[in-house]
Amino acid sequence: MDIVLQGSFATVSPGFPLGRPRHGSYDGGVKDPRRIPVMTDALTRLWEARPDLTLTRLLGLLETHGADWNATDEETLAVLRRLAEETPARLDDPTGRYLVTTENSAGVATQLVTVGADRVAVRQIPASRTDAVHDLPQPVVWEHSGVRSCHVAAPLVITDTEGIAHRMGLVSSIRVIAAPGEDAPVTSLDGLRRRTLDGVYLLELEDASLLLDRTAWLFTTGRRDLHRERLTWARLLDCTVGAPLRIALDGGEVRELPELRRITVLE
Asked: For every residue of 72-137, which 3-state class applies, written as one string?
């Protein structure tokens, strides 16, 4: 755009792009309206990842993360982008690690699905508090060949190594555990204390598995049924792949379990 001075007036000749600054404000103090699509696009990305929120609740979420009424547009945009990166609306790059929550047709959350580059770990969400305390389902782990569909408010479809597509419910949320390129394998948790635990792990043993959270669940398979044991633990004394697992319980007892085959980060 060309500005031509004629006497005390200025005329603007046709042309594009506009000769205005990319950011900031006009000389007269009016902010550049071209920033608006950038802001609304970022808001849309975040809202698509959390469609269950009303607009007012979404704005409240931004406020709790520092984008309050006094925040600049640049500060608000940074918060929008950060939250959208942490909880994306779709899984585009499966080389990272993600926690996907799925629900049934009634809108009830039923599964926690941890998706890695080549493996999937599925945990059934207990139907009641009683089940969570006494009858927690054993996590199931299997290898996959690709994620066919993973988008909030759409079905989660993952293909196994035999080419069979598994429909795993409607995606209600996606959370990034490790960004693409940052999902390094975990081979040891030696010395980990319960009070400093900041994740959830599945320890795959020689003939059992241990779900490690604030409470540990030991699953062993018998000839006809599955045995569950709830453990109140204090510290992992020895927890390295290729060696027996030794765990100190809250009362001082030390349990030695079979050889640790693999550590899977679930959350």
From this structure: CHHHHHHHHHHHHHHCCCECCCCCCEEEEEEECCCCCEEEEEEECCCEEEEEECCCCHHHHHHCCC
pLDDT tens-digit readout, 10-64: 444 343 343 444 444 444 567 888 889 999 999 999 999 999 999 999 999 999 9
Domain locations in the chain as residue ranges = 32-85, 97-178, 194-265
Other CB atoms within 10 A of residue 3 CB: 9
If you count them, how many residues does the chain have? 267
Percent of the chain exceeding pLDDT 90 equals: 74
The mean predicted confidence, pLDDT, of the chain is 88
Containing 248, the helix (H) or strand (E) segment is strand 244-249
117 Rama sector, left if φ>0, alpha if ψ -120 to 50, beta otherwise: alpha
Task: Give which of 165, 259, 163 is closest to 208, Cα–Cα.
Answer: 259
Question: pLDDT value at position 30?
Answer: 74
